[in-house]
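Record type: monomer structure entry
Structure origin: computed from sequence
Chain ID: A
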Amino acid sequence: MAVLLGTFMGGMCLGSLALPRIVSPARSPLRVYAALELATACCGVAVLFGLPYIGSTLLCVVFLLPPTILMGATLPAISRSVKPSSLGYLYAANIAGGVLGCLIAGFWLLRVFDMTVASYVAAAVNVSVAILAMFAKPEAPVAVAPSPASGAVGSSAHLAIALSGLSALGAEVVWTRLLSLTLGPTVYTFSIILAVFLIGMGIGSGLGTLIRKRARTGLGISQLLLIPAISWAGYMIADQLPYWDKNLSVHADPWHGFLFDFGCCALALLPATLLWGASFPLALNAAAQPGADSARTVGAIYAANTTGAILGVIAFSIFAVPLLGSQNAERALVVIAAGAAFVAFSLKWKPAALAVTAALAFAWLMPPVPWTLLAFGRRMPMEAGHTGNGWKRLYSAEGVNASIAYTQWVDKTRYFQVAGKVEASSTPSDMKLQRVLGHLPALLHPDPRSILIVGCGAGVTAGSFVVHPEVEHITLCEIEPLIPPASARFFGNENHNVVHDPRTRIVYDDARHYVLKTSEKFDIVTSDPIHPWVKGAATLYSKEYFEACRAHLNPGGLVTQWVPLYDSDLATVQSEIATFLEVFPNGTVWGNLTDMNQGYDVVLLGSAEPIRIDVDAVQSRLDRSPRLAASLREVGLHSAAELLGTYAAQGRDLREWLAHAEINRDRGLRLQYLAGLALNQGNAPSIYGQIEAKGSFPRDIFTGSQAAMEALEKNFKAWRSDPF
């Protein structure tokens, strides 16, 4: 992500620098602008069709450079068509369009349609703008003389705006991570945070444009004011917003929750974003030279700002947060703002002393991020509050990819949390689910030797394979390096010490990337529970991903997939199951019920071939392996009949029920939009009741002795939940 975002912004930087050097000021600015917009539209459509065939990050970078270079060139190009005093308004208008694009794409185009439609709409906007530019007239003729040397004032403005860009994008990295904990890391949360950032910068750039005299002083003051503004955001995000219980919206309409989230973000972020927005036109006015080519001025300031932004993204996402923690990263942002103020004031000692004093004071006041926020996220007011409320912190950390926590409740139950939500625990329902994800396919496969587990979690799913004597290779794919060693420490007994088992190989990689690129094949592919409403997780529930899993199965191989019924709704669950059955039409659904015999979550089992299960053979495997039998007994499953009795339905039973379900495809990833809307729903018992109602005892799947079949059918009926 850092490489791709750096490529996007780097391309824009190159475009802003290149245009005034390549295109003569004598060319019609609006016609040049129109040509850039048309070329961007063509590149956008090419990217849409070309990306699925790109096989490496390097090729992806090369593919994205042309459109981003063109986009970066548009602002310098159109700046030649307006008076120098209006340049800041161009930037403000550009950001205003960015706000609309962010909200329209994030809340409508991608939610209702898909990436194809969104790309075509974006291209159509490019074409429409190009047509308007062709027929528009410049505000006034703009005379351009040879550009004089920038001088010390111009140089200080360039360095100050670069530092401003570094702090702005560094802050966006830090605050997006923290706010996504408080609000829930859905696609909607990220759209809201970005929109608030852009709104603040757009309004700020409009205000900054009004200051034409003493612009360098104004630039220095804006950087000085960023010191308390950054501290204010840190205070609100760490010490106030997480304790507001309204972020657990109980409204049936989630849009009320989005409005509340928007207000929270605005309250915390607007002061700083207004000042960052004002910095750009102030730097433009400070660097402007009489008679200079406005495109060169805009291009140079824009490039400096973008270069700082690229450094901010990389430095804070890869280094500052994981190495220093969010609190110290925010302190670093305060120091950077002080440095920008010092530079903007041309290194004068009085402003420098004020900046250093303010930075030290506000950096010292920056509040720490509570561990309860890392652990409980948006549920923090309910679970922990200000006092801890019976919870004990075992370990917490902020990694490159995720914030994690290991906690313990007063009854000694342990929990593993990622991104502010419980991912695994030692509770009976969670332990049973995690063990079944592993034991079910391993017992049904006649000779399971090679296993792939997507996501470590607490390691319980992966550890289920340790007690199967036939297993020779366990490949555990995990994106966050902090997790496997910590899970070995706090869940070693529950996961059968899988991390230290000699058969285990840990691959630190994005699971989707690993599955697509590895040449290995496996007897079983499964995954630790990964919540579909989390931004990015829908790629592990897509048709293309399941097809990749099927392609990496050995003959007779099996796939299991977790589907949560809680924090979800009917449309979301139907989409997950229908997408899986689209690839594995012989798939089956297995239930995991609570103590009240109500649906909680389910396991999907898929195979390229029809599934046949010999109940006696499964029981024989249990009888031959005491460790295996003990692992199932620990979660309340004492026999093959009890394990297999959790069967709920098969694909053909659910065909009518799933007739109108959305298939989650890579081009749309509609699941993350469905799941994000259903986050506060509590319909698990009802959804599971509907699945059960469609299923019946499958004599075409199970075989065995009369005694085994009778025991199985008895358990099958016993596992039936009460209908809702």
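Annotation 1: Confidence is low (pLDDT under 50) at residues 145-149.
Annotation 2: Residues 254-287 form the longest helix (34 residues).
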